[in-house]
Write a structure and sequence with these properties.
By secondary structure, this protein is an all-alpha fold. The protein is about 80% helix and about 0% strand. It has a single domain (about 5-395), classed as Up-down Bundle (Growth Hormone, Chain: A), CATH 1.20.1250.20. Helix 1 runs antiparallel to helix 7 (about 160-190), helix 9 (about 210-240) runs antiparallel to helix 16 (about 365-380) and helix 13 runs antiparallel to helix 14.
Length: about 400
């Protein structure tokens, strides 16, 4: 594993997801200052997701055919700069439009970045993907802190700070990525004789579409849970437990900061006990934890629950990506686009409906609804077959 470049791509992932991570923490400010209801702010979560859910697998499909590494800095710039503009508008549909562009930027970045990580990972695929995922989860964790701090200091126009951060990281990647490509190509040429002996010919690799379809169903249910929690935890803490918007935003930071640690632990654990086991154990744990959250009005207990919820949400992240790449061994880019992209996007399509549910039945019932979706995800995890590892295929062809 080329750790230096894995860390660089993970840093890009961090900056890409800062803006998207900030959005849920911005939503309570839109309610307070613009008078939006739950359905309206849920619509903004939908805006960040609905096109990216289509764009990301599409770019993953294209990545399997031709690599365009310049898409990584472009995606980072669009994701951050567009989110930075959200606080500068008062018109709802203008805000909706820039949030949509931010989601598209995120969708452009992820498939090419995941494909690059796959090239850099060597035999430690779970570890490399977990490091990459740590970058994204770190962005989701830090985003709310930056958003709350900037808005508190400068008003809604403070969101413009995300424009600057995105520009800086995009310029850094524009300088580093060409050298990264050259070093990968050089390493490939020096190892070509070894690769010919041990690599699995692409014609011997098979796509297991039925298994990937089951995995996609799990991703959809888990994405609804993740997007739902991102959207409604701050609102739940403000309206049910009585916390301030600043304190409620910090709960998301706690959730994703713990996610940074558990994503790495999950990747290391998966390399030892298996990707499928990590996925199953994590989702089984997630169900009762969200159930407990839905039944408490105590802010301290809610904060404490962020720790096991964070572990259950993020520890299987890299394992899901690796499972997808194993099921679609001939279409790594597409598998990466779906598993990375849909996890944080497709659930957003359902958020307006959940927002309407919250308006009609309240936030406690909304958390109970998310518990049910977590249960569906857990059940789907037991429908997944154990993947055939490449090492097994190689052994058969040698």
């Amino acid at each position: 594993m080329n750790r230096k470049y894995v860390y660089v791509v993970a840093l890009g992932h961090f900056f890409c997801d800062i803006g998207m991570g900030a959005l849920p923490a911005i939503l309570p400010f839109f309610i307070l200052q613009s008078g939006m209801d739950y359905r309206s702010v849920a619509g903004l979560m939908f805006a960040s997701c609905f096109l990216s859910s289509v764009v990301q697998p599409t770019f993953g499909w294209l990545a399997d055919r031709t690599s365009k590494t310049w898409l990584m800095p472009l995606g980072i710039f669009l994701s951050g700069a567009a989110m930075g503009l959200a606080g500068l508008f008062e018109n709802y549909w203008a805000i909706f439009a820039v949030v949509t562009v931010s989601g598209i930027g995120s969708a452009i970045f992820h498939p090419e970045a995941a494909r690059m990580i796959h090239k850099l990972s060597g035999a430690k695929r779970g570890t490399a993907l977990s490091i990459f995922s740590v970058g994204g989860n770190g962005g989701f964790a830090v985003g709310p802190i930056i958003a709350v701090t900037a808005i508190t200091a400068f008003g809604m126009k403070g969101t413009a700070v995300f424009c600057l951060l995105a520009l800086i990281m995009a310029m850094v990647l524009l300088v580093i990525v060409p050298k990264m490509k050259a070093d990968i190509a050089k390493a490939s040429l020096s190892d070509v004789s070894t690769a010919e002996k041990v690599a699995t010919p692409k014609r011997d690799l098979q796509n297991d579409w039925p298994s990937f379809a089951r995995l996609t169903l799990l991703i959809i249910f888990s994405s609804i849970v993740i997007c739902g929690l991102r959207s409604f935890i701050p609102l739940y803490l403000v309206n049910v437990t009585g916390l301030s918007t600043t304190a409620a935003g910090s709960a998301l930071t706690l959730l994703f900061m713990f996610g940074v640690v558990t994503t790495l632990i999950g990747g290391l654990l998966a390399d030892k006990i298996g990707y499928l086991k990590v996925v199953q154990m994590s989702y089984v744990l997630l169900v009762p934890m969200i159930g407990l959250l839905s039944q408490t009005t105590n802010a301290f207990i809610c904060y404490a629950l962020m720790i096991p919820i964070g572990f259950a949400m993020f520890s299987p992240f890299s394992s899901v990506v690796v499972l997808g790449q194993n099921y679609l061994a001939r279409s790594i880019g597409f598998a990466s686009g779906v598993t990375l992209g849909l996890t944080f996007s497709v659930g957003g399509i359902f958020i307006p409906f959940i927002g309407g549910f919250a308006d009609n039945y309240g936030l406690t019932a909304t958390m109970e609804l998310l518990t049910a979706f977590a249960l569906f995800a857990a059940l789907c995890s037991f429908l997944l077959p154990k993947p055939v590892h490449r090492e097994v295929v190689q052994a058969k062809t040698m």
